[in-house]
Write a structure and sequence with these properties.
Layout lengths: L13 H7 L3 H24 L4 H4 L20 H10 L14 H7 L8 E3 L15 E5 L3 E5 L5 E8 L3 E8 L9 E2 L5 H4 L13 E3 L13 E3 L13 E2 L2 E2 L47 H37 L9 H18 L12 E2 L3 H6 L32 H4 L3 H16 L12 H14 L1 H4 L2
Antiparallel strand pairs: 1-2, 1-9, 2-3, 3-4, 4-5, 5-6, 7-8, 10-11
Helix pairs in contact: 7-8, 8-11, 11-12
């Protein structure tokens, strides 16, 4: 039996160790016992289905004025469940794919948005390079489906509460019930990666042939600012991107040895038939343009939720102090103003694509995603839209997030929304020439300003 080396100095004799009751063998037994106890404790803490109020007791958004877990959600998914309960609609069951086709239709999730993820970064353990998890999304809702999985995962944005998580069992039900998650999803989706608020998250990890994530080899939370070479480890990616290289489509063969990821083998893949049986999915694609849009969108949702929470929490704190100090009801302290400004500036920089690296090569997807995404408008009188793609030097032709039309943006608390609108007018007029917005030419600023003036007049003004 292999024994652990004692942590006592080498000049301590065996007799002294025996007197203390610490023979090498004894040390091995004691250490093994403590390691087992520590492992058992961690396993229970991570896996035991604790009630939400207990597991999340330290999360700030569980308290008023947000009360995340106790507040009924208002999302596309909750609305669907209300319609199901009232028998105003129904979900049909497909023998091959269960409720997936019906859900995609009811939630208006385009099949062209399909992305395939083979890293085991989900609660569903059936995921592997041979059986990836399919993700479908629109502007406010995400769906995850594994062909042999036990459930369908759903994430939908609530304009006030942020990301709400749901599941629907795979098996046929007389009355399908989409259940809100009890808090387990927040272990990953309300972490440092999401700035401690409930939000979607995209990750790039190195995986082995079984789909196990090798976090020690490098893990990145991705958005539109992430370098191309660091993106999409553990994802299938179909499309062309010239000389650029990413981490998608490939695995490390043996985790026990140091191995360089063969990025070349995963580059410019347009057909996945050599990697997996694509017929089990509604689409054979995992579109490059779609995944780039997803990268932008998940972080934008994250920052909008942060701005919402920060403003509401700061105002609630002021209200308590105003009452205690006999100040005017609407008084806003300097600390609250700074807190709102900080959150708003993060939104502004991100929504205007500050920090987006230039594309040295054009990109092109393999599905109809780009065409269908651009068609969803709205457009100004010249036919321009924030959904128009560039795909030659950057993602969008007019780099301002299309999520300005979303409920999450429109229903931001008044103080932070007013600050964003005021700053946006200054930036787009060309008066702000700071480094964060230097990537926007005067022509581009003018175009964005005119598009917003016609399609979001309440934000930019006439």
């Amino acid at each position: 039996m292999r024994r652990w080396k004692s942590h006592y100095p080498e000049d301590v004799s065996k007799s002294q160790l025996d007197l203390r009751g610490y023979t090498i063998g004894h040390m091995w037994c004691r250490n093994t016992l403590w390691i087992y106890r520590y492992w058992l404790m961690c396993t229970l803490l991570l896996c035991w289905p604790l009630p939400a109020t207990h597991a999340q007791g330290l999360l700030e958004f569980e308290r008023d004025p947000i009360a995340y877990s106790e507040t009924p959600s208002q999302t596309r998914v909750s609305q669907l469940q209300e319609q199901l309960d009232a028998k105003h609609t129904s979900l049909s069951y497909d023998i091959k794919r269960g409720y997936l086709p019906s859900l995609l239709s009811e939630l208006e999730l385009p099949v062209s948005s399909q992305l395939l993820v083979f890293s085991r970064t989900s609660a569903q353990r059936q995921i592997s390079p041979q059986q990836p998890r399919a993700i479908y999304f629109n502007d406010d809702t995400y769906l995850g489906w594994v062909p042999s999985g036990d459930l369908i995962e759903l994430l939908a944005m609530d304009a006030q509460q942020g990301a709400i998580f749901y599941t629907l069992p795979r098996h046929r039900q007389k009355q399908p019930q989409i259940s809100r998650d009890g808090g387990q999803c927040l272990l990953c989706h309300a972490s440092a990666r999401t700035l401690r608020v409930p939000a979607p998250v995209a990750r790039s990890v190195i995986v082995d042939r079984q789909g196990q994530s090798l976090f020690g080899a490098g893990s990145h939370t991705t958005d539109h600012r992430t370098a191309f070479k660091k993106r999409w480890g553990g994802w299938y990616v179909t499309g062309t991107h010239g000389t650029m290289r990413h981490r998608g489509n490939v695995v490390v063969r043996d985790y026990r040895t140091t191995e360089t990821l063969n990025r070349e083998a995963g580059a410019n893949i347009t057909n996945l038939s050599g990697h997996l049986r694509t017929s089990i999915f509604p689409s054979p694609h995992s579109d490059l343009v779609a995944i780039m849009v997803l990268d932008h969108q998940v972080r934008m949702h994250n920052l909008l939720t942060l701005a919402n929470y920060e403003t509401r929490l700061a105002i609630a704190y002021d209200q308590s102090l105003n009452k205690a100090l006999d100040r005017p009801i609407g008084y806003q302290s300097p600390s609250t103003q700074r807190r709102i400004k900080a959150a708003a500036e993060k939104v502004l920089r991100y929504m205007l694509f500050s920090g987006e690296p230039r594309l040295p090569s054009p990109i092109q997807g393999t599905s109809k995603f780009a065409e269908q995404f651009a068609q969803r408008g709205p457009r100004d009188r010249h036919g321009r839209s924030l959904r128009d793609f560039n795909l030659k030097s950057r993602l969008f032709k007019y780099p301002c997030s299309y999520l300005v039309y979303s409920a999450s943006f429109k229903q931001l608390p008044a103080p932070v929304r007013q600050y964003i609108a005021k700053r946006l007018r200054i930036i787009l007029s060309g008066k702000d020439e700071s480094k964060s917005f230097r990537h926007l030419s005067l022509d581009t600023r003018q175009a964005i300003q005119n598009i917003l003036r016609e399609t979001a007049p309440d934000l930019i003004g006439n």
